[in-house]
Structures are given as structure tokens and as C-alpha cells.
Amino acid sequence: MAKEYLVLDDRVYTETDEWVKKIGENRFQVGITDYAQDNLKDIYAVELPKIGENLAQFQAWGQIESEKGASELISPISGKVVAVNEDGLGDVFDTGETAKTNVYGGDLFNINKKPYETWLIEIETDNEDQLKRLINPEDYKGKIGTA
Q: Domain residue spans in the chain?
């Protein structure tokens, strides 16, 4: 029997297992799915973009490191980074001029425990049509074998 993964109906998904959720006018949160965190195993580092950085849809914007190795994080939508989640991920951030990297030892990241509550970045965009190029919850369940 296939493993059951949580897929929430209030967001849309990417082929690369990120989710995007509308949280306000032209504002969206982005994170990784339950399926992604389970396949990555223990996550121990996340590279986040800087606030103000412009991202293009389906382009890499950072990476996530886990016991399985490093994986690129892909932006589900184009827009400007208006927030990064420094709170939900752990303790240590490099706050220099480069992208922020979170390294957390000991316990698992919240992202392993609560992948839909632990967003990584917030993006502002005025082009909601690009959401149509993403995967709806039912189709995403089929993609990962949870249908």
C-alpha cells in the first residue's frame, strides 16, 4: 500500500514539490510539501533569498540540504521576495550580504514536522494567472500516489 501524504486544498503545487498559498492581496507563501520533506529525510540547512530579490517562475532561488543531499528550491511564481521565515526554521542565520543560510543541529527542522505550517518565503506578485500553470491538489495527489 502506498504511503499517505498530506495534501492541503488551500494551495497549489509544483512538479518539484513546492506549494504556494495565497495569504493576501498579491501576496503568497511558499514552502515544500509533506511528500518532499519525507523524501528528503532530516533537513539540516536551508538557503533563503534576500528580501527584495526578484524571482522568476520555475527558476531556482535557493537550496535545501538534508541527509539525502542538496536539492534546489524552485519558485512556483514570479515576483518579489517580501519576507523570509527566520522563525520557523531553527536558530542560526548568516545575516551577511549573501543569501541567508539556516543551519540547525539536534532536533529536526519544523519543516519536517509541519511542512504546511512552515513557509520558507513570501512573494508579492500582480500576476495571479501564473497560478494556472501549477498543479491543483487533486492532480498533485495523483502525481505522488496519494489519490
A: 16-128
Give the neighbor-by-neighbor strand order of the sheet with 18-24.
12-13, 18-24, 27-32, 121-124, 79-84, 54-55
**Bridge partners, residue 79, by sequence:** 55
CA dist 53 and 4 (Å) reads: 36
CATH C-level class of 16-128? mainly beta
Q: Could you tell me the pLDDT band of residue 45, with boundaries at 50, 70 and 90?
A: confident
Query: What are the cell numbers at 51?
Result: 528580501
Q: pTM value?
A: 0.85
| DSSP sequence for 42-57 | SEEEEEEPPTT-EE-T
